[in-house]
Amino acid sequence: MKQEIRRIAILGSTGSIGTQALDIVRANPERLSVEVLTAQNNADLLIEQAIAFEPNAVVVGEDKYAHVKEALQKHDIKVYTGAEALCQVVQMETVDMVLAAIVGFAGLRSTIAAIEAGKPIALANKETLVVAGALVTSLAKEKGVNIYPVDSEHSAIFQCLAGEFHNKIEKIYLTASGGPFRGKDKKFLSTVTKADALKHPNWSMGSKITIDSATMMNKGLEIIEAGWLFGLKPEQIDVIIHPQSIIHSLVQFEDGSIKAQMGLPDMKLPIQYALFYPQRVASTFKRFDFAAYPSLTFEKPDMNTFPAIQLAYDAMKKGGNLPCVLNAANEVAVSAFLNDEISFLDIPAVVEKSMNKVSFIATPTLQEYIASDSEARKEAHSLTKTKISL
Ligand code: NAD
Ligand code: MG
Known about the structure:
alpha/beta; Rossmann fold; four-stranded mixed beta sheet; 16 helices; 44% helix; globular; binds magnesium ion
C-alpha cells in the first residue's frame, strides 16, 4: 500500500529539536516532507536546510531576512519575516502537521494560529502549555485538534496510555535526571558557573532548557505541561529523580499497576512518535543494552535546594496567569544568568519575587496573557538589575 506523505511545518528548525526532526525527515523521505522551516538567528543553517529540503516557505528573524532572501533567490521558496508571518505559514492549506519547536513564550502565538487552522500539533514548546494551557487546550478541543507531546516524559506517559484511554490515571511519575547539580547543596550552588550549568549529564539540548534542567525548573514546567496534556491535578503528579534517564516516565492506574516507557535517552524517538502517531516506524536508533545498565536508581527530589519545582506546583495550584508569570520571569532570569548578570541561585529567586509582584488574573484572555508576560518580564528584568541574592 502506498504511504501518504505527511507535509510538516517545523517551527524552530535550526534548534536542537528542529535539527533532529529534520534527521527523521531525511530518514523517511517516503513518509514525510517539509512544507515550512523557520528560525530566528541562524540564517546560514536555515538556508542550508531550505536548499536540502525545498520547503514551500521559510520564516526568519528580521535581521537576517535580506540575507536569506538573497541566498534563496534562485530557489522556488518563499521567504518571510516577523511574528505575523509565523502565524500565517502554519495555516497554509498544504501543511498537514506543525512541529512547535520554538523555545519559550515566542512559540505561543504560532501554535495557537496552527490550532485555529485545525492543524495537528507535535508539541515540543512546553512553554505554550505553561503560559496558556487553559486557552490552548480548550481551543484544541473546540477545533478537534490533537496535541501530540514531544517532550520525552510526556511522550512516555502518552505511550503508556495507548490502549488505556478509558482507564483512569491515579497518578503519574515524571522522571528527572537531576541535572548536573544532583546531590549538591546551596553552598555549592552559590559558586557554580554558566559553563558548569550547561553540562547536562544525559541530554544535549538548547541552552535555555539545559539551564532549566540544572535549576529543575524544567521539571516544574513539565508538571504544569502534564497537567494540561493529561487533565491531572497537581497532587496526581509526582517527580522522581532517575539519574540514568532510561525510564522516561510512568503512569499508575487505579488498580495500582504502573506502566513505564523506557529506552536510551534520545529525543529522536519521541519526536518520531509524535510525527507518525499512531504508527511506530522502524528506526536505526541505538538500542538499549540491559547489561550496560545493571542498576536503575530512583530518589526523591531535593525541593529545598531546588525550589523551582515547588514554585511550579504553587503556580499550578493557583492557576490563572501565575504560570505565565513564572515562565516569563524564568525566561528573563535564565537569559540574565547566561549573560553573566546574575548568579545561579538568583534564578529561582527572581521567579519567586516576580510571582509575588505581578497582579493576579484568574481567567486571562490571550491579550491578558500577553500583558502578564510583559509585566512579569519587566519585573524580573528590574530584579536582575538590583542585587537580590539570597
Ligand atoms: P533551541 O534553542 O536549540 O532552538 C530554538 C529554536 O527556536 C531555534 O530554531 C531558534 O531559531 C528558534 N527561536 C528562538 N527564539 C525565537 C523567536 N523569538 N521567534 C522565532 N523563533 C525563535 O531549543 P530546543 O532545545 O530545540 O528547544 C525547543 C523547545 O523544545 C523548547 O520549548 C524546549 O523546552 C523543548 N524541548 C526541547 C528538548 C531538547 O532535547 N532540546 C526536549 C524537550 C523539550
Ligand atoms: Mg522533558
